[in-house]
Amino acid sequence: MYGVVTRNAEEVEWSEFDAGFYEVKDVTGRAAEPLSNAVNMISCFGDNAAAEDDPELVPVNDEGDPATRDQTYFDWSYICPTNERYREGLLEIIDDCVAENEAVRLDDVGFPRPEFCHCERCDRLFAESDHDDRMAWRADVIESFVADATDRIPGRAYLTLYPDPYPGHLYERSGLDVDALATHVDEFVVPLYDTAYGTTYWLETIASGFETRLEGTGTPFSIELYAVDVDVDDLIHAAEVAEAYANDVLFGYDASNAAAAIRRKRAEARDGVTHGNE
Ligand SMILES: [Zn+2]
Q: How many angstroms separate the CA atoms of 98 and 246, rounded?
């Protein structure tokens, strides 16, 4: 199956795509009305606008440095996953989405990095918890959010993972216990972005790593490619590598280029042309 990931409502209907993923809330904090004919996507703990409006929402490390986009390492501003009011707001957005379409995709779930969060609330909640290990406590926080969120999603629940399949890395980085989360989620989505896909060995390595990592969880994964200004032949080749491992292949943010690649790929499949690892 080929899907498109977009901010433009009309593109989810294009005939080339088997599925459309539509950003209802992205990392800028921009909000849109959910669609009935798409899997609506919610950036959960990435939100520049919310972080700017209320700096108290932003996670801090033990030196008090915030996880905002002006800091090294961060491309957008994060929100602390233990903020109850913000979480309630996310659950309300999920309710609005499932009223339109039963499938929902959760993006940007997790803590920003291993050294977060040491806000007063997180320090207090950890001290009050049954956990001695802060990393285990973080994973518990994230799992309980994902459990609450997916309980409200009657259709397919997707969860986006940072593209690092190395054992223990997602747990240390973001507090994502993949095995525990797999019991709540129907499908993981792994974005493997490149601006050219001139080489694809790394794509194959990461995809194969996720195949191994998720083996035994019973939860499949899809790969999301970046389609903007990528040469169509290179995009087709990347898609062929991705689909050897992934359940579905999604194309991000350039529906025209994605549609062109899918059309040509299907035509070549009919004519028996392959883009193997020649
Ligand atoms: Zn916190």
A: 25
CA distances from 44 to 10, 111, 123, 228 (A): 24, 11, 21, 24
Domain boundaries, the chain: 2-270
How many Å lie between the centroid of ligand 1 and the Cα of residue 123?
A: 7
* Answer CATH for 2-270 from 2.40.50.140, 3.10.129.10, 3.40.50.1820, 3.20.20.80: 3.20.20.80
**pLDDT score, position 254:** 95
Å from CA of 53 to ligand 1 middle: 17
Distance 192 CA to ligand 1 centre (A): 29
pLDDT of residue 73: 85
Confidence of residue 269 (pLDDT cuts 50, 70, 90): confident
